[in-house]
Amino acid sequence: MSALRICLCLNPVLLNRFLTQTNLLSSSCALSSSLKWTSKSLCCSSKSIVHSNGDTSTSLSRNCPLSGLEDELVGYRLGKKKATEVAHLVWRHVLHKGDIVIDATCGNGYDTLAMLKMVADESGSGRVYGMDIQIDALKNTSSLLDATVTQKEKELVKLFPICHSRMDEVVPENTAVRLVAFNLGYLPGGDKGIITTSKTTLLALEAAKKMLISGGLISLVVYVGHPGGRIGYC
Length: 234
Ligand SMILES: *[C@@H]1O[C@H](CO)[C@@H](O)[C@H](O)[C@H]1NC(C)=O
Description:
The protein is 30% helix and 20% strand. By secondary structure, the protein is an alpha/beta fold.
């Protein structure tokens, strides 16, 4: 994990004004540019919050849903906050109780758990659709939930052992999804041969884009430190 990026893409349909990213390596989001997205499909470079020259004074526009998080983003840049912590802060900023969210890469389940805590409410309308190609990852996610949430909360989580490029097969049609989160790269402690690829990631991002409601968020935390880069299979 020598370097990582956080890239947050807002549904451009109505919120076409903003995307933010914190990036240790360059001022553009390598993942999206490598996927050759136009700014019309998923915007991905409207504004750098923290410049690579160390200038951390940039502020976010007031109508940006992430405004108020500048300090956290700077904290990340300065190494005081982990990428996942910043991602969780951003999600909390965007999510409401009762929302429907997708954890496209369950891993060991910490993101799934964080999302569940953010959307679970009394009414039981919140949902977390979680998926991972590795059965072990889902087992671990399930055990983590058993150990940390009530049975009623756990029932709000639906786990699927599939590639996230097939998320539209498991999430019911016309589901209003507010967040789709990706944590790309190898699973810590998992099989380093199983890493996410740009091909399946692209398919998954396209699927995610279709499901997002206006004002929804696609969150990408991309670990670029493993030897395979972003090449491998889902
Ligand atoms: C699941 O959890 C076990 C025990 O903590 C760990 O050894 C294993 O690497 C995890 N597997 C995956 C795929 O996360």
